[in-house]
Amino acid sequence: MWDYRPCRAAIRSPSVVGVRCVPWWGLISSAAAPLVLAGGWIVAARLQPRSYDPLADTVSALAALGAADRWVMTLAFVAVAACEFATGLALSPAGLPGRLILMAGAVAGVVVAASPEQVGGSPRHAIWAAVGLCALTVWPAGAWRRGRAVPWALRPVATAWAVAVLLALLAWFVMELITGAGLAGLAERVLGLAQAGWPCAVAASCRRSEPATGTPRTAGTLVPG
Is residue 224 part of a domain? Predict the structure, then answer.
């Protein structure tokens, strides 16, 4: 049999490698988020008139007042937010500030779904969309940990790269909105998938278990007994 000791002790121990600390439902919620998001905008776009251009038009337009079957994208927004919130709860190996920021971004997503775009603009929608996008961009900066037991996606270098890439994609999307270059829809979709995909990568790295070779047995390891 295997003797499993608490994850928290494993994260603190410098000689423990790859302890599985994320529950199965956290892995499912993290994997579901990008799938639901992409599936939502694909189905919703097919229901729109031909004037809708997925490369130029934003995802929010699919849930805007007056959009055809706007409930499809609205429901997708809510479902993705629920998945991200659940993932934040499940990522116990991650730093608490990062988890709280991730969950705050999920809450902002619910408010966005409840504040659809409308003709003439919607300040509430814009503000909460900005809050959600920023939170989902910077949360890895508060999630990093140090130590040999830390999963690769939570190490300082990995989290720094994640934030850098997400910031670059966010900047691209903002520039598309400002300049009207015609690729705002594409930029938002790439950004959305990256933001929804990184928590999945983090959860998967936490679930991966690697044997510790040449290290002493310490609390938090899986040892035969």
Answer: no
